[in-house]
Amino acid sequence: MNWFSNPFNLAQQATDYWIDAAQRSILFMDVLRERGDERNHRAEQTAPHVLTFQFEVVMDGRHLERPVNYGLLHILQPDGIQPDPTKRPFIVFDPRAGHGPGIGGMKHDSEIGVVLKAGHPCYFVGFLPHPVPGQTIEDVCRAEAQFIAKVAELHPEADGKPALIGNCQAGWQIMMTSALNPDLVGPLVLAGAPLSYWAGVRGKNPLRYLGGILGGTWMTALAGDLGNGIFDGAQLVANFEKMNPSNTFWSKNYNVYSKIDTEAPRFLEFEKWWGNPVLLNAGEMQYIADSLFVGNRLSDAALLDSAGHRIDLRNVKSPIVVFCSWGDDITPPQQALGWVLDLYEDDAALVAGGQTIIYSMHQSIGHLGIFVSASVANKEHEEFTAAMDMIDIMPPGLYEAVFLDKDEEMLQAEIASGDLAAGDYVMRFERRNLDALRALGGNDVEDERRFATVARVSEINKGLYQTFASPLVKSMVTEASAERLREAHPLRMRYTAFSSKNPLLNQIPALAEKVRAERRPVGKDNVFLQMQEAWSKQIVEALDRYRDARDQATENIFLSVYGSPVLQALVGLSTDGGKPRRIGRDIAREAAINANRAALALRTKEGGVTEGIIRGLLYIFRSPEMSAADERAFAAIRQLRLRTSDNKVMNVTTLKKILREQYLMLQVNEEAALNDLPLLLPEAPEARQEALGIVRQVAGATGTLTGEAATRLDRIAAIFGPQAPTLAVVRKKKGAPSAA
């Protein structure tokens, strides 16, 4: 359409647009005022949070022997219905990475909401905005261990140890806690949690270069000194915002301004969490920067606690679920999963270590969406929660979680055999090898050498700062100057400036009320509104081009400076071309693993019908066609209600122990385990046929067996036949388990 063919219509469109734009401007200013007032109100609270669920305090970390500003909360069911006491409890740990607590329960469709909906007892570990003087990361890990023990104590009837969900920073923290207390915890879910900080690919993930560009962590020490022993979490939030300047400086606010009639509530809800940065002790932040961000010592098993215990993630006995996303620019998949490649040379070492690792990669969701997106909560988190008992008994190895939409065949199978997979999806855990993680991309040896150079340069610069500059800085800082510096941070200033504390905004509430009464939004076909949208897109594109150029320049500088052979030699790195780091072997740990495998190899004749059924099933599932574990097969096992020798229904803990032992027996010597399998079976032919029926039912829960899987089933059927030898007398003396 020719815009100028009807000048009167164009003038009318201009008038309508400027009225709408003026009204939107006033309403937008009022939204910013509400945001600022909310931030000021929350800053005065002792324990601000964004949880939408009612709770009661179970433990206050400030009263522990080594006090911390963390606390354990019991989340109450919204409907007042008590959770099932036999279900394992869940504990959600929120990240202390600059923001306040509560994002894991910010909405009803959230991690906490999913757990409550599934009928599990739910707990939450949050924190206060101010740290306890002198608290350390080790103190926090020690407190978390006490919280976990308390939850287990409160639920003695629960079928399984507490499951832990750690978001972002809380993910690596619960991993440290679990490595030091491996017998205390159940399955771990790490949502967007970075554990391998050097990992990434060129052209992406620029945040990993930040330590090198700043010359190491001496600026962290400077920030702590300027804060009089306190590190301001607003600086961490600012680093996140700098990653995407178009969103920070334009899109987020423009989205509210352009959709002011609908978008304000969502914006205010999110800003309630985003705009209240918390504080950390300078020592805590220095530990994080030195040991994790720059040193990358967690995935190297190079950290020690104060008692000299190595914090080795290979010591974690519980299954580990890693949930990450390709759309996450804070914790890309390489950083979420790279620690596996750091710690294990091959798949055999992973299995021999008894560790079960399951990963799931979303295709597009952003970092915060992993915790707050309703679509993620109602799919990934819901499925992981429902399958947690199955995850707990998974044999050692690496798996990828795959979510299948239920098709007509699956629905018909459910009608025939019962609902073996609740919800709209079927979850499968498909066997993977370490090459699948290597295919994600990562550093070559030269890049590893560059990051190792950064770590050494950081130590040198920090030492120089602490020796020569730190005493001078500390002598000039007071608590008053530190507080003024925190209040002057741009993140806080933008909230204070647009709040009722600013007298220039006194008339805004009245004007906004009048505008709402006389609102005249313009139509989408308005030419001036279309021009506004076009200008907005150009601004975003310009800021994105600046971001890309900045990130590329940052990477080039990093690669050039820290790739210098001269600098590498000056900091003591070998120039022979070998790997700059190598994970040390733990001889005592390896000896214990080998001793356990040797002992299991001698126990293939021990057990009863339950062990026999599980061994037979595992033998079938070791075939290439059955490389994926399906929740329907696990549901079939649970429906059969296997029993122990004293005729009690077998719980998850006992089932897990038997399953892992039988799996390792097959791995050590499959033929010996099969040759001794008849000795575990009942003497009566009818009982053997009943046991074989169980094997067939579970193995066929996901469909008809074909190929090698069918061949293996035939072999198991022959072993379970009445002609196979038994040791009925021996079994009677031992009181072997039985199947219902």
The CATH first-level class of the largest domain comes to: Alpha Beta
Distance between the termini: 77 Å
Number of strands: 13
Radius of gyration: 29 Å
Architecture of the largest domain, CATH level 2?
Answer: 3-Layer(aba) Sandwich
Amount of beta strand: 5-15%
Stretches with pLDDT under 50, minimum 5 residues: 726-740
- Number of distinct helices: 31
Q: Taking strands numbered 1, 2, ... along the chain, how are they ordered across the largest sheet?
A: 1-2-4-3-5-6-9-10-11-12-13
Organism: Duganella rivi
Protein name: DUF3141 domain-containing protein
InterPro entries: AB_hydrolase_fold, DUF3141, PHA/PHB_synthase
Pfam families: DUF3141 (PF11339)
Structure explained in plain terms:
- The protein is α/β, with parallel strands linked by helices.
- It folds into three domains: 307 residues, Rossmann fold, CATH 3.40.50.1820; 175 residues, no CATH class; 134 residues, no CATH class.
- It is built from 31 helices and 13 strands.
- The strands form two sheets. It has an eleven-stranded mixed sheet, sandwiched between helices. A two-stranded antiparallel sheet has the order 7-8.
- Helix 2 links the parallel strand 3 and strand 4.
- Helix 1 crosses helix 20.
- The chain is globular, with a radius of gyration of 29 Å.
- The chain starts with 6 loop residues before the first helix and ends in a 6-residue tail after the last helix.
Keywords:
740 residues; alpha/beta; Rossmann fold; 3 domains; 11-stranded mixed beta sheet; two-stranded antiparallel sheet; 31 helices; 13 strands; 9% strand; globular; disordered C terminus
